[in-house]
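Reopening this one. Same input as before:
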Amino acid sequence: MAFEINNIVVAKKSMLEKSEFSVECNISGGAMVSKVLASAIEPSIVSCETLSGTVNYSGELDIKVIVLDEEGQFNSTSSTCPFSSKFEGENIENGQNAHIELKVIDYNIVSINGDNIKLNVMLEQSGFVYGNKDEQTIRCDDEDICFKTDKFNATRFVGASKASFNVTSEISSREKVSKILLVESKALVRNVEAGVNFVTVYGDVISKVLYISENDRFESGYVVDSFKEEVEVEGASRDSSVQAFASVKEDGVLTEIIEDEKGIKITITVPVNLKVCVYDSQELEIINDIYSTTSDLSVTTSSFDMASLCKMDVVEGKIEGSSVIEDDKPRVDKILFNAGNNVVITNSYIENDEITIEGIAKTNVVYLNDEDSSINSVQLDVPFVISDKFEGQTEGIVSVSAIVCDVDVVVKKGRELFYDARVKANVIYCTSQTCGVISGAEKLDSLQERDYAMEVIFAKAGDELWDIAKKARVHDYQLQSQNPDVAFPLQEDQSLIIFYQKMIENVE
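Same output, byte for byte:
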């Protein structure tokens, strides 16, 4: 057979359509609730299934709330709220892997009834599906078929793997701790390195602890601990490209108060989940042009999109902004604490080798009003823009996950609140490449037999050996050997001679 199918394996990555949906949750306040002061809500994925045209998944909202009970005491409680959702799209194929990203856009307290709190949480879902796909090319072993090959760097999905581990941190306290109100922990990947059948992920875990001291003062502290974790991925090599994602299951965070001769310390044990996706690049040879010296050919070409290798970096910046609370809320005389710190990335793009990240930083500010001795809370939404150097193309796909730390809020003029924090963003940048290949060929009618022994071809300056031979329907080595003094591409217009072997029949 002149032509055979020669499939190549390439990586495919398609973005899932971003959308928003709401989840209604009922949680217990632990006692008769007078007022909800602050909430920290973190979504997580529990299970996922990819079918043709659909990604179905289930998740949980880990909800922590700080409330004021009917006796004027501060309490905190945590709960888990299950939900499910899906993506739909023609680009989703059965058996693909899916990576889903969830962000809490906003929430509101629907009602408080005794110890029951009803919340409505607005979520944003996005992500991508990925995997390998066979693309058809051809190979040929027919002596009458001439073909030209080209080097092709094929990106291939090697595999994905998950790992879970704990990071333990400590915060020292100057006073004895009466009650821990809230612990907020986030994880961020800073760097990745590929090895033989494993990858190493480097990152940070940032925790904020809010507690009440024995003197009834609100205290808080931030702690940052780095991690280095090896994840086994069969097929990974030192030349592989790695994407890594880190998350914290908030309902699994544990705290312990330890008192010894050195003083008071709070230990925080944070469960971190890692997910890594590994790709590599293989150099292949594919036929990119073809013709026959004896027959006409019907040639089929096709094109496909292939994921290119991704790069990752961390961008850091500072967020500052002021917000004036509404007139129907009591003025702020003293800020007690802030909690429920979050950041939502609204836009990101690369232009002129610089990445710009736009977002909104959110926090709940709990404060005291002296006039009626009331305790109140307000949610601050602070828009921000940060930028940094980043090499990439404008049409590339940018995925950003971010966390805030060192959040501080101060009051100015009673109604104006000034927000100050640092933001750390993990940026994954990928591109997609459109490739064209010859995917099929078929012999048609035979060429008319030549009735002459020699032919003169008039070629023009700049013509290549392959193009001249293809037009003449001869092997390029024949054209070269019969014109040994000619260099290609031609430097000037030139006449070339081709001799054809003629079979002479014996006549008796």
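So the earlier flakiness isn't reproducible anymore. For the record, DSSP finds two helices and 23 strands in the chain.
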